[in-house]
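Known limitations

Files may contain more than one protein. Parsers should not assume a single record per file. Below, a two-record file is shown to illustrate correct handling: read the sequence, read the token line, then continue until end of file.
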Amino acid sequence: MELSKTIAKDLLSIRAVFFRPDEPFTWASGIKSPVYCDNRLTLTAPEVRTHVEEGLASVIRENYPDVEVLMGTSTAGIAHAAITAHLMGLPMGYVRSGAKDHGRQNQIEGKLEPGQKVVVVEDLISTGGSVIEVVNVLRDAGAEVLGIASIFTYGMKKGIERLAEAGVKNVSLTNFDVIARVAAEENYISSADIDRLIAFRNNPSDESWIGGTK
């Protein structure tokens, strides 16, 4: 079974990704969403965690063979970066959401030399804003950011455009479209719901998918 489907099944099985198209969740921004995603749950499911971390190691080796350091995003990417770095025998660190207001006032934690080739490890990409901030912090510190390895991406237009504008590549273990298809195959949702989910993904601010064909 291809990796993206395996990870999709894993995330659905532990409800790290949970679809509820008839009773949408409300994001902090106020947008109604048919999907809830919390990849932190993978850390408490050993078999799924193994698939995720080995999957991240595999895609990093394949797509970023020159990598020298893994850097996790704070806070969700830290554990995944640490475990994956251990599997790969690489150093790791992480980037804070802001500089500390005490001590050395670091924003980058861990040793990073100018010119080192870095891959950013992220758990989830939606609009891409937070991970691009991490990429920019690393670039400002002199790192050569090869790209991002993430567990799951929505594939939202805004996120794709932001990554392109920043000139940064992202490789995800699975994505919204694959998980929607697998969710229908596994009877978490009906096959008729797929179009509603894709409509949300394509334009989250348009709520016309709510109350659609059930």
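...continuing to the second record:
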Amino acid sequence: MTTSIRRVKTSDLELKDRLVSIQRVTKVTKGGRTFSFSAIVVVGNEDGIVGHGLGKAKEVTTAIAKGIEDAKKNLIKVPIYRGTIPHEQLAKYGGASVFIKPASGGTGVKAGGAMRAVLESVGIKDVLAKSKGSSNPHNLVKATFRALMELRDASLVAEHRGISMDKVFNG
């Protein structure tokens, strides 16, 4: 199955950022240890547009700022149907495997750490999610993005099949 990446322009968007993870990394040199920081950031407008980025710097605030700038360059559009996703989806990235499933109204976002940040940034209000395998935040964020990119709404299905919207639902 081929996925179409739905890229979005950053102009005129009110994006909110969420820090998923921050790591202190060490480089051992002849002169001793050099510390720096790595930050994974998710940005979204809570209305179907989301992006993720990685920033690295000597200071935490600079790493986060770089992560936000990187995230703004990787925005995608996600189909949302009545506050949830159109269908269930399984995706894998590296050792992380994620499963997201639509939920009825009032359920809330049932997801852990890195997945929760991504799903809330998209604007999904009701969803059930499960992560299996690695709990590495880098891979979890990327696996969640892969699952969200593979989602298809009814109009995309109709276009792909070359039929009208009525025939998608009525056979």
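Parsers that stop after the first record will miss the second one. For reference, the second record is described as follows. Helices lie at 60-72, 113-122, 137-149, 154-161, 165-170.
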